[in-house]
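The material for today's practical consists of a large collection of protein records. A record pairs a protein's sequence with a compact description of its fold. Instead of coordinates, the fold is spelled out as a row of discrete tokens. We will come back to this pairing of sequence and fold again and again. Here is such a record, shown just as it appears in the course material.
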Amino acid sequence: MEGKLYQQFKVAAEGVGAEVYRVEGPEQALELITGILREWESRKRDKRLQVVWKKGSITSGLATKPAIKGIIYEKELSFRAREADVGIAEGDLAIADTGTIVQDATDVEKRYVTTLPELNILLVRTTAIVADMEEAFARLRPGRIPFLAFITGPSRTADIERVLTLGVHGPEWLHVICVDEGGSRNGQG
């Protein structure tokens, strides 16, 4: 079932402009993140890449950071996210039929990391992919979470003369990394 839900999620998320990957564990996720960041470094040519990373249960145990020339911030994220090129965070669930990542975004730093930089990299456990919104609400019980964020593809709007524009109200690019195993399941690293 997990493979079928992943495939459905991948098709839906890529249909709205996200790039979706699947890796075995946190170490492979780090390798993939490093590759994505190196590609972004090459785009910045004269400017140092700035990354804000809100670690969560999947990545908290990683001892190393991506090997890039840029700066990776893990503290003061509310301040640093305003100037960052890339934001990395984790989602709590993924909804297969819409390609949506759901996250408890009560922490304001997590909100800034996922909305201010032009590239957003989100990690989610492959086992946390659910079929639909009904199942997501059943698992999350939203009444106990003050701020839920639903992220479906990069930011897009057609408010301006009905012309589709990306990146106006949030990140222009979204990469989703589905992680099969590893990390702490209780958020404690």
